[in-house]
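FYI - complex with prephenic acid, inputs then prediction.
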Amino acid sequence: KSLSSVTIDSLRASLEKQEDFIVFSLIERARYPYNSFAYDPSFLGNQNCSFVELFVRETEAMEARFGRYQNPEELPFFPDYAQPPLAPPHRFPNILHPPGASVNVSRRIWDMYFNDLLPLFTKKADDRNYQQTVASDLICLQALSRRIHSGRFVAEIKFRDSPQNYIPAIQAKDSETLMKLLTFTSVEEAVVKRVFKKAEIFGQNVNLGKNNVKEAESKYKVEPSVAAKLYQEWVIPFTKQVEVGYLLRRLI
Ligand SMILES: O=C(O)C(=O)C[C@]1(C(=O)O)C=C[C@@H](O)C=C1
């Protein structure tokens, strides 16, 4: 990928593809109940760290050794535990302005996912299947983080397409004006509608004839309204926050 091949349209196409993966990741996580012990910091005894946190920390440390975070699209949730890579990095295109590349809302994504989102689409129960539970949590978290931090690339391209529009607000550190400049309401509405439809289509329970119908089963594996709410209330607003944060660092 050369620099000039990245456009606002190619970035929007990439965000659209990521929706599929995010919806499928939620569907996968919804196979397990909430499983609250996986999130209880006292569950592992004196580790003072939840099962999920330890799993994410150790998985990230291992993946860091294999170069996952050499890719500017990937950010770890626990950078302090990252290990130096074993092999020289693949040459990823240098698109981001370095001070902006460090904009990071991982902590907010983590809190939103566990406190707000997970209770909306999992059954309040416990099946003790904690490994598969936290492994599918990590897939959701990584997919959300990649999507939301894509805001850095979107902001860079918006800036390059019309620096004259952004420079005065950046110099004035005027986040509100930056937020207005980078907002496209009709695009956001289309994203939310599309995600709702994807959850409807990808997550529909399929029944073959009368004998197969389970009365108690809902129609969808993840309620389409939950997928839409995820985007409307968190994914898009966090992406925009990343865009503003990036732009504020664009002239450093
Ligand atoms: O497509 C863009 O222009 C983006 O910045 C991405 C995005 C989104 O998160 O989907 C965010 C802000 C815009 O208002 C529209 C959509």
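The domain at 3-248 is CATH 1.10.590.10 (Chorismate Mutase, subunit A). The pocket of prephenic acid is lined by residues 12, 15, 154, 182-184, 187-188, 191, 236, 239-240, 243 (CB under 6 Å).
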